[in-house]
Backbone:
């Protein structure tokens, strides 16, 4: 039984413990692992897209990829290749005066010549993202670029 316990993985240790105590384990749910026992519930939530949240330079990023892109833009800002950088800029999408949705761009970049670009660090392009990208082009005439 000792070989079944994996103390480096707390979830594995919990599962082994509850199994050893002869409790019934039900491993299910779409966004996490749920262990049901007679008297207690243990829930471990996992991220929907399996990305890891990262902190860097006093900021929180939703993924390692987004953090790496920020590092490149920050270096370009220090070097003078870009003049302004804004993270998590919000755009309200209004169609005929009605609020349809809000698009949150990962990065808004302004170059010294005045040109503006919107960048999104994408690992997986969802249908929702593709629709919002088209709405950004239609409403604001902004091409969202992926990196």
Residues:
């Amino acid at each position: 039984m000792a070989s079944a316990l994996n103390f480096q993985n707390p979830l594995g240790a919990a599962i082994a413990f509850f199994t050893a105590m002869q409790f019934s384990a039900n491993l299910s749910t779409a966004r996490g692992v749920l262990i049901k026992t007679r008297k207690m519930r243990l829930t471990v939530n996992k991220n929907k897209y399996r990305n890891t949240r990262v902190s860097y330079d006093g900021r929180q990023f939703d993924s390692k990829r987004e953090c790496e892109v920020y590092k490149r833009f920050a270096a370009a800002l220090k070097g003078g290749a870009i003049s302004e950088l804004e993270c998590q800029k919000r755009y309200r999408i209004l169609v005929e005066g009605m609020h349809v949705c809000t698009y949150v761009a990962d990065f808004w970049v302004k170059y010294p010549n005045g040109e503006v670009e919107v960048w999104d660090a994408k690992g997986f392009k969802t249908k929702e993202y593709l629709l919002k990208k088209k709405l950004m082009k239609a409403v604001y005439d902004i091409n969202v670029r992926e990196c």
Summary: The helical segments are 10-20, 64-79, 127-140. The longest helix spans residues 64-79. Strands lie at 32-36, 41-45, 54-56, 59-61, 84-95, 98-110, 116-120, 144-146.
